[in-house]
Design goal:
The chain has 70 residues and is mainly beta. The protein has no helices and three strands.
């Protein structure tokens, strides 16, 4: 939940299969209003780019670097 309780951020995991039959998870970070409306994907992962648990940061604060292997 956001610090003000008005929004929620979560990871959505999809397991699509590719044309060559490969199956792999694709994670995206989604933000929505507290009632679930207004969903918006803010980070879309790929099979080669994994996204982790979202965290709120103060407005205009720089994003910390992250180096998590896939």
């Amino acid at each position: 939940w956001s610090p003000d309780g008005k929004r929620i951020a979560f990871v959505r995991t999809l397991e699509p299969s590719s044309p060559d039959g490969e199956i792999g998870e694709i994670n995206s970070i989604v933000v929505a209003h507290a009632d679930g409306s207004g969903e918006r994907t803010v980070v879309r992962g790929t099979r080669r780019l994994s996204v982790g648990a979202p965290a709120w940061r103060p407005r205009r604060a720089p994003l910390p670097p992250s180096r998590t292997p896939c």
